[in-house]
Amino acid sequence: MSAAWIALQNRVETVAARQTELQSGLNQIASNAHRRKLQKAPIWDLLVGSVTAVWMGGFAAANVEAILAHPLAAVPAALLFVFAIVQLNLSVRHLIAVGELDMARPIVEAQRELEEVRKQRVRVTQWAFIGAVPGWILFPIVLLQSLVGLNVIFALGAVFERSPAWAVGNIVFALASVPALFWLFRKSKYAEAIGREFAGKELLEAEAFLAEIREFQGE
């Protein structure tokens, strides 16, 4: 009787071990699928940052003499270049965090890695929103400089003379919006809700998958 009981117990343990191994394999497959989705999330940000950086580099190379003669005229292009570099840096850090993510690892470790991905993703999206407001003014200026010439910015003084309130209002709005958005995203009572929205569908799906693993392991 004891031998039969031991054999049955061994069989149950073998089945349980195989089930655990199978579940681990399925978790690994699903983890890889979620990681691929998360890797696609910053593609647009990388594209915008890369195109802008290359454009500003070419713009500077084509206008070296004019920039040396009138350095202030290159300020809009310099600001756009800084925006692009920061955007690229944040996007690359997001990809690095995703590359280190493995939701098939122990649950605590996987949660820590996924939280890092969330932080990086939210930062990328926040920066895109923050940079978009001053970019609304800077982009048309640099585009006009690319088409007409660097010093065309000085001709824009006519805009101030004809519509000073409109011109000053746009500049003040752009400058004031940056710290206001920083406060909204980091310190306001809506910061957490905004962070969830900025996380994106792919990250929310990954978090839901990790919650399922945690629930399964807790059973």
Structure report:
With 219 residues, the chain is an all-alpha fold. The chain has one domain. Helix content is 88%, strand content 0%. The protein is elongated. The model has no long low-confidence stretch (mean pLDDT 74).
In short:
This protein has 219 residues and is mainly α. It is built from ten helices and no strands.
Total count of strands = 0
Poorly predicted ranges? none
Distance between the first and last residues' Cα: 31 Å
* Number of separate structural domains: 1
Give the helices and strands as they follow along the chain.
HHHHHHHHHH
Q: Helicity, in percent? A: over 70%
Please summarize the sheet with the most strands: none
Protein structure class: mainly alpha
Taken as a percent bin, the fraction of beta residues is: under 5%
> How large is the radius of gyration?
26 Å
What's the overall average pLDDT, rounded? Answer: 74
Globally, the shape reads elongated
Number of helix segments? 10
Descriptive terms for the model:
single chain; 219 residues; mainly alpha; 0% strand
